[in-house]
Design a protein that fits this description.
Strand content: 5-15%
Order of helices and strands: HHHHHHHEHEEHEE
Radius of gyration: 36 Å
Structural class: alpha+beta
Number of helices: 9
Number of strands: 5
Length: about 220
Amino acid sequence: MNIRLLLMPTLLCAAALTGCNSAQSDWNQATGANTLSAYQTFLQKHADDKHADDARGRILALQDDHAWSSAKATNSVASYEDYLKAKSGGVHVGEAKYNITALQRADEWKTLQNNPFATSLQAFLLKYPQGLESNEARSKLKQLDYRLQLADAHNKDEAERKRRQLESKFGKVLNDIVVVPPNAPGTLYRVTSGPMDQAAANSACAKLQRAHQSCKLVQGDGTPG
């Protein structure tokens, strides 16, 4: 019997075992390093190994984590939007969208501090019903219990005409001027500002008086303040 024929299966088996041991050893090294380059090197050497799919998955996960870390480090609407464009299926998509909304909400709230009127606060809450700034907006809205009574009128048309005149002259000061219908028979229509807090109402009234416009501070249901 040919000895070489007998040795051939043994040699093939040994080669196979050596290859398996080499792939497992390389996989152990790759997982120990847990880096993109380590997994990429493993795939270059063992593209058909049983661990190949796992290596590809870990590469995608690491790329996603790196992209997310970069977005968080910049912490801007643009950086989170870039993450969403590049990693639309990433595990941090929900957090990225949340952070975008939080940053936009905070920026709009800062702007709103210069325009603390009921209409602007209500519009803010419609757009952002949840969040720290939204809670502050609700608290501030509760404080808007004051109005400036600006004029009286005997009928709706006269009241609307006075409202338009006042809005053209003092719209920037008051932001919102409304007509309040009579609350009892025989009483007048009132032209008032929109709701404000007491400090803003006093400040606005002082500006109107300097412009020779009469105004009276009223609270809540119209009781003089």
